[in-house]
Amino acid sequence: MQRFLIFIVTLLLTVQLCAQTLTLDSCRAYALKNQATLANARLELQSAKETKRATFTKYFPSLSLAAAYFHSRDYLIDVSSQSSGAQIDATVSFDGQTIDSRISNLQARLDQAGIDFNIRSEIDNFMDRISVDATLKMLDHGFFANALLTQPIFAGGRIVNGNRLAQLGVDVAELKLLMREDEVLLNVEQYYWQALALRLKTETLSQALCLLDTLERDASTGVQAGVIAKGDLLKVRLRHNELQADSNRLQNGYRLAMRALCQYIGIEYNPSYTLDTSTLSLLTLEPLSEADTSVSNRMEYRLLQKAEEAERLQTKILVGESLPQLAVGATYGANNIVGDIKHNGILFATLSIPLSAWWETGHNIKKQRIAQQIAANNRNNNAQLMQLQQQQSFDELQHACRLLPLRRQAVSDAEENLQETRNYYDAGLAPVSDLLQAESLLSQARNQLADQLIDCKIKELTYRQQTTARR
After folding, report:
1. What does pLDDT average to over the chain?
2. Which of 52, 272, 309, 441 has its CA 20 to 30 A from that of 229?
């Protein structure tokens, strides 16, 4: 018994889920969550924020480390007098005088004293008996390491303006995300109202088919009684078949519209999905008094302003390339090249003045200022076009709103005409062709009202998006 109750509850929940009613708000929520264009726009915003964070690191000191170790099979420096046959010359001095000068002075004194002794000859004989083998080998292995810390003090404003440009990229990405959201919401409404219009037409056609079913039964009875010509019955059947074909076409169109709506909002299509008809109460619109031609709130205009500002920052960055650059830093190193580990630290300051680049940079600055002027011209021109677009949207909305009461009155008149014609038909004072024509006029009036409601709502939404600030 318990399993049976669980099965019944599960079945009821499944039926409830399958018979889900799609409201306009739920379709908007699904689209904002599932639309791929919005997902990409959010990723672009995240990328712009990462670029901003990366650019901000330029304010901080830069630290670099370098290290190396070498080991050679042979000595890099190898000097041997014996193996190479090299002759080693040495100059010796004593008390600031050379040995030759000292020998000459000493020999002169010996000669004055009458002593027969040749000092230079004795020294040469002594040196001839001496052999020298000098060997110098070094640098077969070693290492060195170095750390360099540099802090920019002034870089011509390029760091500051680069960070401003990165923040501008974030602002542009946010505006593009808002534009994508508005675009998605407008498309959702178009899909939703178009599907709803087809459903309204389907309901109108169902009412007409019910009327024709009743009329066909009455006509068939009248033909059997001999009070109605068989031609009138055939006219009713022809009209019934025509409406049945229209009904099949509308149902196919409605299913296709529902599939398109589900695909756009990112949910799987279910044939049992229905639309909320209570949204028809939202379609009571009143004509506006005058058009709002201000474009300052439009995201398209704000994007044009951002583009102009970006060109201006690019100009400042180019100007900064021609200015002096000042930085301070410190370096610390250690090495073991000649046997002992040596340490050394240096504090330094650098000033760089790009003298030879002034000529080229000057031309680049002029080119960038031309691009800045082009951006300003585009902003002014597009602002005027957007004003015309808003005026056109306003005029179309006004026209649609003025037609709406006329369509409602046409439906009311068609309903009254059908009722009156039906009364005449029942009294035998009107032929069946008049009744069929009255039914056709009512169906046409209801379909025109449905189209007018949807057209009015979409035009109203378009105009609101063009004139209402999101942030």
Report:
1. 82
2. 441
Residues 135 and 277 in one domain: no
Residue at token pair 């196919």: 252
Predicted confidence at residue 177, as pLDDT, reads 93
Q: What are phi and psi of 128, to 5 degrees?
A: -65, -25
- Exposure class string for 191-210: b at 16+ Cβ within 10 A, else e: bbbbbbbbbbbbebbeebbe
pLDDT for residue 124 is more than 80: no
Long-range contacts of 384-388 (CB under 8 A, 24+ apart): 386/295, 386/298, 386/300, 386/301, 386/466, 387/293, 387/295
Query: Which class for 454: exposed (0-12), middle (13-18), buried (19 or more C-beta within 10 A)?
Result: buried
Give the CATH number of the domain where residue 192 resides.
Answer: 1.20.1600.10
Does residue 105 form part of some domain? yes
Structural contact between residues 439 and 211, judged by C-beta atoms closer than 8 angstroms: yes
Of 100, 118, 144, which residue constitutes the final position of a domain? 144
Q: Can you give the pLDDT at residue 338? A: 66
Is 10 among the domain residues?
no
- Tokens linked to 206: 């169902």
- Does 110 lie in the same domain as 165? no
Give yes or no for a contact between 173 and 44, defined as CB atoms under 8 angstroms apart. Answer: yes
Q: Which whole number is the average pLDDT over 241-253?
A: 89
Cα–Cα nearest to 422, from 262, 239, 110, 212: 212
Range of the domain at 110: 79-144
Q: Concatenate the DSSP letters of all residues of 58-101 into one string.
A: GGSPEEEEEEEEEE-SS-SEEEEHHHHTPPPP---EETTEEHHH
How far is Cα 97 from Cα 436, in angstroms, rounded to an integer?
142
Rounded CA gap, 228 and 221, in Å?
9
Residue 72 maps to a domain: no
Place of tokens 């709502």: 457
What is the percentage of the chain residues whose pLDDT exceeds 90?
27
Q: Mean pLDDT across the stretch 154-182?
A: 92
> Distance (Å, rounded) from C-alpha 179 to C-alpha 291?
22
Q: Could you tell me where the beta strands, DSSP code E, fall in 321-363?
A: 325-336, 342-352
259 phi/psi in degrees, rounded to 5: -65, -45
Q: For residue 139, what pLDDT is reported?
A: 63
Paired strand residues for 325: 352
Residues 133, 261 share a domain? no
CA distance linking residue 259 with residue 268, whole number of Å = 8
- pTM here is 0.72
pLDDT digits (tens, 9 = 90+) for 19-33: 588 888 899 999 999
Q: Of the candidates 69, 24, 334, which has an alpha carbon nearest to the alpha carbon of residue 191?
A: 24
CA–CA dist 309, 135 (Å, integer): 72
Q: Which one, of 235, 246, 245, lies nearest residue 212 by Cα?
A: 235
